[in-house]
Amino acid sequence: MNYEPNSFTRALRSSTPQVGLWVTSANNFTAEVVASTGFDWVVLDMEHAPSDMQTVLGQLQAFEASATTALVRPVWNDPVEIKRLLDLGARGLVVPMVQSADEAAAVVSAMRYPPRGIRGFSGSTRANGFGRVGDYLDHVENETTVIVQLETRAALEAADEIAAVEGVDGVFFGPADLAADMGLLGRPLADEVWNVIRPVAARLTAGGMPVGTLVSNADFAAELLAAEFTFVACGTDIGLLARSSDALLSSMRSALG
Predict the structure, then answer these.
(1) Neighbours of 7 (CB within 10 A)
(2) Catalytic residue (choose from 10, 48, 116, 153)
(3) Sequence-separated (6 or more) residues with CB below 8 Å from residue 95
(4) Where is 221: in which H helix or E strand?
(5) What is the per-residue pLDDT for 137?
(6) Which of 71, 89, 169, 252 measures 20 to 30 Å from 63, CA to CA?
(7) How far from chain centre, in Å, is Cα 65?
(8) DSSP secondary-structure letter at 169?
(9) Does the pLDDT value for residue 59 go beyond 90?
(10) Is pLDDT above 90 for 164?
(11) What is the pLDDT of residues 8-54, one digit of tens each?
(12) What superfamily does domain 7-256 belong to in CATH?
């Protein structure tokens, strides 16, 4: 067996716009439903979803046969959890609440084998086809997507230093936590938030660093992709289910008078 190239990593490096979705349902069956849609990328969330390693394994298996690249957001910047997710076969990670260049460097180190990092080695994991992918070690470091999240004003102030860390493939702006840090809790689409994010995003993009985000508004997501952003998630699976359920019931109530 040969190592399969990571289409998402390559798309970021060629500045090809990528449309994504956040998957928070913590269920392999619903992941399979989403896998059939055809998003360029998804994030399987562990930070704000009731997921564990077994849950993520099932979700990764659901996306395996699709053209969608499944990334995982771990609970924290924890090298042990990062190691286990990579061994499960995650094609990339979106690591939350990175505040400095040192923390970004720790993410990269956790995702690389010695001597370039600290990732523990196992010769038989799902990631390497249980030992059958003979060229896994030759390609995994270059193909695995390393994305760090900036979610506070302090992180934005350190954005240039974070983006300069060798091995970081993308910088992700978290508007919800940034809004909270700015005293605008629950208002991730507020102009004040994006007036802070967009100049930093434009500067990083001009310097060659792909930038991404999550916004639950398709029109705004398209606007960002047409401007300075390379990868944007335009909603969440749970959000879609909730809004569609609400709309259906509202429609029925109206029809019944």
Answers:
(1) 17
(2) 48
(3) 73, 74, 77, 82, 107, 146, 147, 148, 149
(4) helix 218-226
(5) 97
(6) 169
(7) 19
(8) -
(9) yes
(10) yes
(11) 999 999 999 999 999 999 999 999 999 999 999 999 999 999 999 99
(12) Phosphoenolpyruvate-binding domains (3.20.20.60)
Decide the pairing of beta strands 211-214 and 170-173.
parallel
Could you tell me which residues come within 8 angstroms of residue 223 by beta carbon, excluding any fewer than 6 positions away? none
pLDDT at 257: 84
> Would you state the structure tokens that stand for residue 67, as one six-digit string?
């053209």
Q: How far apart are CA 91 and CA 103, in angstroms?
A: 21
Does residue 48 carry a catalytic annotation?
yes
Sort strands 145-150 and 211-214 into parallel, antiparallel or unpaired. unpaired
Show the CA angle centred on residue 123, arms to residues 120 and 125, nearest 5°.
85
- Tell me the two tokens of residue 215: 């916004």
The dihedral through the CA atoms of 156, 161, 165, 169 has a sign that is: positive
Asked whether the predicted pLDDT for residue 1 surpasses 90, the reply is no
Nearest to 9 by CA among 82, 84, 94: 94
Tokens encoding 242: 């909730």
Show me where the domains of the chain are located: 7-256
Do 160 and 107 form a contact (C-beta atoms < 8 A)?
no
Q: How many CA atoms lie within 13 A of 86 on its CB side?
A: 31
